[in-house]
């Protein structure tokens, strides 16, 4: 399936700022069942964009805006083809745990086994693992155990938009039994790593359609996990929606947790309040989305553009009055 993706980000400042420096991780990866055919960035104010690939193969674009500006707009457009992966086997065999241990001993997966900034063990996490019966000694094979954990997180936790922030500790989400996709992913990663299974965080997009009852937010990015299994390799699990990752998931970046793969991260100079607006559209298409049309029926988007136009008009009037 071909998907046209538009990821719109705008920072608006209450007063002029300068020397904005920004890193972006928005370009979909090309590997396995996914191919990114086109990717383009539009930055306003106009600036030169540089790029590199980090040690995990993620595309990182970076730029700076030295002059004064009251807003920073980033539009990322991509055309991606995603195929459904091969179906998972019913069983990995009785020696699956021994095979997994041999893979870990032979290759370098330490960074996806050790605790990280947002994916770490705690008293709350250990209690949740006992409640869910997550234990590699209970006779279940790794794939069965991960599928069960994926399902239990879905059923025991509620998806509540804006219930947590990007820096919320998983202990808070565990106590409240609520969160967003980032929290579901961090909790699952932490529990899976405690089983001595390499597990990593995946950021990207999910195509929503009426045929699936997805809980994740429309118009936003998405997050899930990948765990390493013998005979198969990295397998994606989406605990937010109780899914094995398939042809509707579009991978952008992988890391130890969210701290490694935020879509935008940066800094600027100036004492100003910041208003952030993010909108995402993922549409089945064999061409890049035409400018502006994909947001035409979006009421939130329309209100934002109207307020933006009013602010620009007021600013222009103030400048004219100052010149008179």
Provide the β-strand percentage band.
25-35%
The outline comes out as globular
Mean pLDDT: 91
Radius of gyration: 22 Å
| Helix count from the secondary structure assignment | 6
Number of strands: 14
Largest sheet: 7 strands, antiparallel
Secondary-structure class:
alpha+beta
Fraction of residues in helices? 25-40%
Low-confidence stretches: 294-298
One letter per element, helices H and strands E, the order comes to EEEEEHHHEHEHEEEEEEEH
The termini sit apart by: 58 Å
List the helices and strands and how they pair.
Layout: E1 2-24, E2 34-44, E3 50-53, E4 59-65, E5 69-82, H1 96-106, H2 123-132, H3 142-156, E6 158-159, H4 170-176, E7 178-179, H5 181-194, E8 199-206, E9 222-229, E10 233-238, E11 243-244, E12 249-255, E13 264-269, E14 274-284, H6 299-323
Parallel strand pairs: 6-7
Antiparallel strand pairs: 1-4, 1-5, 1-13, 1-14, 2-5, 3-4, 8-9, 8-12, 9-10, 10-11
């Amino acid at each position: 399936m071909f998907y046209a993706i538009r990821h719109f980000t705008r920072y608006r400042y209450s007063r002029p700022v300068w020397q904005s420096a920004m890193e972006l991780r928005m370009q979909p990866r090309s590997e396995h069942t996914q191919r990114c055919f086109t990717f383009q960035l539009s930055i306003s104010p106009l600036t030169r964009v540089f790029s590199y690939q980090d040690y995990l193969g993620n595309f990182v674009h970076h730029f700076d805006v030295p002059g004064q500006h009251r807003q920073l707009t980033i539009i990322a457009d991509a055309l991606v083809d995603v195929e459904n992966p091969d179906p998972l086997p019913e069983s990995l065999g009785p020696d699956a745990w021994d095979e997994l241990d041999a893979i870990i001993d032979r290759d370098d997966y330490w960074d996806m086994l050790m605790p990280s900034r947002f994916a770490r063990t705690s008293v709350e996490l250990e209690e949740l693992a006992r409640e869910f019966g997550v234990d590699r000694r209970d006779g279940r094979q790794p794939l069965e155990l991960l599928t069960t954990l994926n399902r239990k997180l879905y059923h025991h936790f509620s998806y509540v938009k804006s219930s947590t922030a990007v820096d919320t500790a998983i202990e808070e989400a565990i106590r409240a039994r609520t969160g967003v996709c980032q929290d579901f992913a961090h909790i699952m990663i932490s529990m899976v790593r405690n089983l001595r299974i390499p597990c990593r965080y995946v950021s990207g997009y999910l195509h929503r359609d009426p045929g699936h009852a997805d809980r994740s937010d429309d118009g936003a990015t998405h997050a899930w996990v990948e765990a390493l299994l013998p005979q198969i390799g990295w397998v994606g699990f989406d605990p937010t929606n109780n899914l094995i990752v398939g042809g509707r998931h579009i991978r952008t970046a992988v890391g130890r947790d969210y701290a490694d793969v935020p879509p935008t991260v940066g800094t600027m100079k100036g004492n100003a309040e910041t208003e952030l607006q993010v909108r995402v559209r993922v549409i089945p298409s064999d061409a890049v989305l035409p400018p502006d049309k994909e947001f035409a029926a979006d009421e939130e988007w329309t209100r934002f553009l109207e307020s933006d136009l009013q602010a620009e008009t007021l600013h222009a009037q103030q400048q004219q009055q100052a010149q008179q």
